[in-house]
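Schema walk-through. Below, the input block comes first and the output block second. Nothing else is stored per chain. Lengths vary across the set, and this one has 188 residues.
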Amino acid sequence: MLENSKQIKRVAIYIDGSNLYYKLKDCEIKNITYFGYTSFSQWLARERKIIAKRYYIGVVRSKEGDVKSKKMQEAQVKLFNHLQSKSEKFNVQRGYLMKNDGVFHEKGVDVKIAVDLLVGAYENLYDTAILISSDTDLIPAIQKVKQLGKEVEYIGFSHKPSYGLIKNASETRLLTKNEIEQFQTVKQ
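--- output ---
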């Protein structure tokens, strides 16, 4: 007897938080802290089952007397609370931020994304990894994931696509401002 129902594909969603933040900011999306990350993820997944939602970001540490780092830390705590709320249910993976010559640099985030992509493929946790990042450092992990028979869907933005990820991903979706505005929320 032939089975009429087809198996629902499983997706894992991996968001490079800093990368997404700056792309949303470029698109003039307001109130990024309370962006509809889960509804955005569901929209990206289409009819597929989401088995994991991970958000990767470098953690801000405030230094005594440093007003900028204090404000950044407070904003990030609000973001973490939102992402881990009952409505969003994201697994937040933390890297760290290092300040060099007055400029913050994120460390450890790309490695965490690459490891999770590979572990998920090796352990057959997903059929497709949905990657929201434009970081070409992830290309070797993407290539290995594809060799393991999994797909990697690169989600980029039409105004600043990553041609390296377009070339290496199984599928590419370049989003426009009009598509992502629907996930913008009013201030909470």
